[in-house]
Amino acid sequence: MNKTKENINSITPRSKDYSKWYLDVIDAAELAENSPVRGCMVIKPNGYAIWENIQKVLDNMFKLRGVKNAYFPLFIPKSFFEKEAEHVEGFAKECAIVTHHRLNLNKERKLVPAGLMEEPLVVRPTSETIIYSMYAKWIHSFRDLPMLINQWANVVRWELRPRPFLRTTEFLWQEGHTAHSTKEEADETTLQMLEVYRDFAEDYLAIPVIKGIKSESEKFAGAAYTACIEAMMQDGKALQVATSHMLGQNFAKPFKVKFTDENGNEQYVWQTSWGMSTRIIGALIMTHSDDKGLIIPPKIAPMSVVIIPIWSKDHDKKDVISKANNIATKIIAEIGQVVHIDERDERPGSKFYDWEKKGIPLRIEIGPRDIINNTIVAVRRDTGSKIEVSLTNLVPKIKELLNSIQSDLYKRAFQYREKMTQEVDSYKAIKNILADKGGFVIAYWCGDQKCESKVKKETTATIRCIPFEQKQEKRKCIICGKETSTRVIFAKAY
Amino acid sequence: MNKTKENINSITPRSKDYSKWYLDVIDAAELAENSPVRGCMVIKPNGYAIWENIQKVLDNMFKLRGVKNAYFPLFIPKSFFEKEAEHVEGFAKECAIVTHHRLNLNKERKLVPAGLMEEPLVVRPTSETIIYSMYAKWIHSFRDLPMLINQWANVVRWELRPRPFLRTTEFLWQEGHTAHSTKEEADETTLQMLEVYRDFAEDYLAIPVIKGIKSESEKFAGAAYTACIEAMMQDGKALQVATSHMLGQNFAKPFKVKFTDENGNEQYVWQTSWGMSTRIIGALIMTHSDDKGLIIPPKIAPMSVVIIPIWSKDHDKKDVISKANNIATKIIAEIGQVVHIDERDERPGSKFYDWEKKGIPLRIEIGPRDIINNTIVAVRRDTGSKIEVSLTNLVPKIKELLNSIQSDLYKRAFQYREKMTQEVDSYKAIKNILADKGGFVIAYWCGDQKCESKVKKETTATIRCIPFEQKQEKRKCIICGKETSTRVIFAKAY
Predict the structure, then answer these.
(1) Is the pLDDT of residue A360 over 80?
(2) Is A99 close to B102, i.e. CB distance below 8 A?
(3) Which residues in chain A are closer than 8 Å to B40, comparing Cβ atoms?
(4) pTM, entire model
(5) Quick one: fold of B305-408?
(6) Mean pLDDT in chain A?
(7) With an 8 Å Cβ cutoff, are B36 and A80 in contact?
(8) A108 to chain B: nearest residue by CA?
(9) pLDDT at residue A6 above 70?
(10) pLDDT of residue A298 exceeding 90
(11) Are the folds of A21-288 and A421-491 the same?
(12) pLDDT for res A393
């Protein structure tokens, strides 16, 4: 489509309307779009390319740890959910159910899954129950353990207030499911996978995160406990980036996942499950982007360099495009980056704007004068700064610039989080901060759900996590005054 | 699990019961398993690893042709199907419908998709309708064309008689959807994508295929015509490996997918769609495997070489394992193949058997005497032949053996198909062949659906395709005797 002057600056500034800004950035970068089915988005090629990169990196990290991929059914018999009391309670409100299959346009017949009582099928909101019904068949002896399986899949949780990437009725994710012979090994795996997510979020997505444990009321329905990583968005709100659940024997018992140990005794396995979803793309957008549009860290960008050949006279065109090709070939061959040359017959300014809003980390401009000087101009998407680069030094300089962008994005996000994190020692202070500028509020909490609920009710903030990093000091719960040594993070959250 | 002597030879021979053999091979190679939901299989790690390789190769082939991946919703409003008359007719019998979402365990509430009349949602059996409802928004001008988008997804078509990989209620696939400004370009794309599938099937899966066009009664519901590639399984039955549909303007019109051409005139786009599914794994199994179990062609095998270190005395163990590691490292580094060393404390014979039924193309045996002789023994999975290989010549020889296995598998399948293909000039001959040894029967057909139906009714065989390769001779339809120049392939099919 041709852009007109009118809709060029169509991104609402963050300061004016943060929610609108978020939607505008997605729209301008062509990442996703609402579909005709409420709550279900279409992930457009630009958005899906980011997801493909996320999959590639994470999948490798899992496989290096011995995890294998498999695929389990989309449909789960309703009765399976009812086997774990907390689990069914947690997902009861958000499931889609298949009860019919269409025999013809007017008549519908109820489904009768063979081998089961006639019962409705749930479209999976998560797959613990169907997967563990298989584990019960596959696991017999300690020799079958640990079992480490991951699935890349779509899941459905009905959303009343959908937002692209952040909350959609259908979303894409991976869900890892492991079974172990000891509690210790399952505990270890829970934390090991959390560390994989932290590493991925910080190293590839440049999103600083805090590792911790969810409070009882915020944990996964059916888990013994839930470990998580939490990030801060640019409006000071928290976003849960990934979770890793220690399931204990909560599912092993109802699903009879048992093994015979070295001594011939039958035991229930210990299990974990862990997941990251397309929600992470929402976090990526809200951590780095600015009023000009999307910013993608180089390590996860589907395209990290765009070259804009600039010519005013026709006889220059061939030269600058040929030079652009030289440069592209060099960068592709020597740094392995994806490079695009924008040869369209459009004004350079309009091209700059186009790639800026799409978040390409580095822009290279090359014109007739640059050819004479044996230079190019590199423009960083994150800072907008222009750097003249000699062609004799091209490859190391581009490499250095991409590395700087990656680490500077992380630093900027980290500094913002530090600035927006405050420790308080009174309930009044928490309320003031959350009502005012927001952000993370660190405070002591006694562990009582009543105190947690009170904060939630009065401020809408929740306990994001009990960070692993604790001070081991005895202080008072800022809500009820009871003595405690537990510091938690309160924040409003997506 | 420990195998006992009793269940070691648990694969039913093909000659005894071909259907049972197929299920036994899947079971023994741990590729897939029935799930508690009728018709839905679990794809186990060994099976999913093959699918991952298929995805990797095909995805690259698509991207090289400018196709981009995206993701569209699982749910499609029922009314969308009703916009294209043939399409809804074709899929009416096999759709799963979501009508409720569970508010709590006892109460269920009807779904109300916002922005739509209250209507049921279909779990996608294919995505033309939902995708083209988006194309109508995305395509405005000739500059937006061609639009080349692919989706990797799960789809649901209710199956009354499911068989793993071949017919499952839920299956995984890719579906490509393109839009073009001219009929010619859409025709070309239909054939171009069919050629991608042929290339992939023959070069990677070593499955020889025949390219052709489906008869009217066998084409995709809603297509102008359907091009396909057909393969022959070891029981002489046909299996449709992939299809590529020219949709004409059949969907463009009801979904109003229009563009303004160079002259400012509004026109409907011309479209194609094309897909390959997890069904291809069924074809892979049935083309190559034998009574010992699975055979996977090296180019698509998740693991192409397994090394079995052999020792009888404990002091030899360290030496042979260290040598096995040397060899593995060399093959991985120099040929880029996935290699596994089986160090388990089990009898070599039982290990041989284990990897044979899993279909690993090449086995390397190394024992103390081999170390002294500076040799190894390589055993081909396809022929069982044992080749002594000098370690000085290891890498080129392994490469050569893998290449031979790949091409010999193709040749074997090709020769079998040739042997099982007969041309006939009487209806009696067709009936006899199909009742006797089966296979492909080539015959002249007038194009009349009545003649086609008669054969189907009396022999259960269908027209698999009208091959692109034709003789241009005038002959008589073997059913009705009418003059025709069209030769077709009749066969019983999966």
Answers:
(1) yes
(2) no
(3) 73-75
(4) 0.95
(5) Rossmann fold (3.40.50)
(6) 93
(7) yes
(8) B97
(9) no
(10) yes
(11) no
(12) 95
Do A36 and B115 make contact, defined as CB atoms within 8 angstroms?
yes
Measured at the alpha carbon of residue A155, what is the angle toward residues A150 and A158, in degrees to the nearest 5?
Answer: 150
Note whether A172 contacts B71, CB cutoff 8 Å: yes
Does the structure show a pLDDT above 90 at A493? yes
Shortest CA gap A80–chain B (Å): 10
> Which structure tokens are listed for A219?
């944990």
* Per-residue confidence band for A114, with pLDDT thresholds at 50, 70 and 90: very low
Residues of B in contact with A70 (CB under 8 A): 42-45, 47-48
Is CATH 3.40.50.1820 correct for B421-491?
no
Residues of B in contact with A44 (CB under 8 A): 70
Facing residue for A130 by CB, picked from B35, B45, B143: B35
Percentage of residues in chain A having pLDDT higher than 70: 94
Q: What residues of chain B score a pLDDT lower than 50?
A: 1-7, 105, 113-117
Give B72's contacts in chain A (Cβ within 8 Å): 35, 42
pLDDT in the model for residue B117: 37
For residue A104, count other CB atoms closer than 10 A to its CB: 11
pLDDT tens, residue by residue, A277-292: 999 999 999 999 999 9
In what helix (H) or strand (E) does residue A238 lie, and over which residues does it extend?
strand A238-248
> What residue has token string 């194609």?
B272
Contact B69 A45 (CB under 8 A): yes
**Domains of chain A: which residue ranges?**
21-288, 303-407, 421-491
State which fold the A303-407 domain adopts: Rossmann fold (3.40.50)
The mean per-residue pLDDT over the stretch A81-90 comes to 85
Residues of chain B neighbouring A101 (CB-CB closer than 8 A): 94-97, 158
User: In three state form, how does the secondary structure of A360-392 look?
Assistant: CCEEEEECHHHHHHCEEEEEECCCCCEEEEEHH
pLDDT of residue A106: 52
CA distances from B469 to A296, A358, B210, B211, B231 (A): 50, 47, 9, 8, 15
d(CA B208, CA B163): 23
Q: What is the CA radius of gyration of chain A?
A: 26
DSSP-derived secondary structure letter, A439: -
Superfamily of the domain at A21-288: Bira Bifunctional Protein; Domain 2 (3.30.930.10)
In this complex, do A101 and B96 lie within 8 Å of one another by their Cβ atoms? yes
Size of interface A-B (CB pairs under 8 A): 195
Question: Is A93 in Cβ contact with B104 (below 8 Å)?
Answer: yes
Q: Which residues of A touch B113 (CB under 8 A)?
A: 36-38
CA B353, CA B376: separation in Å to the nearest integer?
Answer: 19
CB contact under 8 A, A37 and B75: yes
Of A80, A98, A113, the CB nearest to B97: A98
pLDDT score, position A247: 98
